[in-house]
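Problem 12. The chain below contains 258 residues. Write out its predicted structure in C-alpha cell notation.
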Amino acid sequence: MSVLLAAVDSSAAAQPVLAVARELARLTGAEVEAVSVDHLEAPATADAMTRAAHVRVHRRSGGVARAIQSLARERDAVAVVVGARGLPSGASPAGHVTLELVQSLDVPVAVVPPQATPRTIQRVLVAVEGDGESHALRHLVRHLVHGPSLEIVALHVFEPDALPLFGDQPVLETEAWAEEFGRRALRESAHDVRVEARVGLAPRALCQAARDLEVDLVMVAWHRNLGGGHGRIVRQLLAESDVPVLLVPIVRVADETR
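Solution.
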C-alpha cells in the first residue's frame, strides 16, 4: 500500500495536519504514517495523537526539513502533509521548514493552516492555466479516486491586462473559455467538474474564491520556486488560506510513472 507522510510536532498545527493526512489517505487509498523530529519541543503531544489515531510514527533527530525529506524518499511517500505554521499568528506565508519542504520535495505537499477545522474533503478548488491545461486537475483525476465522488471546481483567473476583448464585452471571453475547458474536463474526469472563471489579480481572486465557494481543499500546480518574485499565488494562499493547500510540483506530474 502507498504511504502518505504526516509531519507532526507538539504545536497547535499537529492535530489539523494529522486530520488532513487521514482525509487525503481516504481519498487516495494510501496509508498514513507520521514523522516526528526531535528538536526543542517535547514530543509527548505528537506521540499521544499518533497513538490515539493508530498511526505508525517514525522518530527522527537532527534538522527537521532534512529528516522529513529523507523519510519521504525512504518510504516512497506519495505525498507529505505539513503545518503552515505553529500558531495562526505565526510566520507568514509559512514557517521556514515548510517553505524549504514545498520547494524541495518532488511529491505533492499539503500545507495545513493551524486554524483549519477537521472536515471531510468534499469540494476541491483546482487552479487551472489559461490554455486549458491543468497539471493539478490531472493529478486529482488520477489519484483522488477512492471514496464518494468529489465536487471539483476548476477555476481560472483572467488578469485584466491579459484579457482579450470580444468587442466591448470581455465577459464573453471568460464564458467561451469556461465552455471549452468544461468539455475537456468532462472527457478526462469521472468526477463532476464545475468550471469557474473570474477576472482580477490571480492571488487575491483565488483566495477569495476559496472562501466564496466554501471549499475543503485548494489544489495548485507550480514550479516549486518562491524566489525572485515567483510563486505569488502560492505565497498568498499559504499566508491567507483557512483550508489546506495541496501543492503539486509540475516537474513530477509532467511524467508520472505511478
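Discussion. The two ends are 13 Å apart (CA to CA). Students who got a different answer should revisit the alignment rule from Section 12.3.
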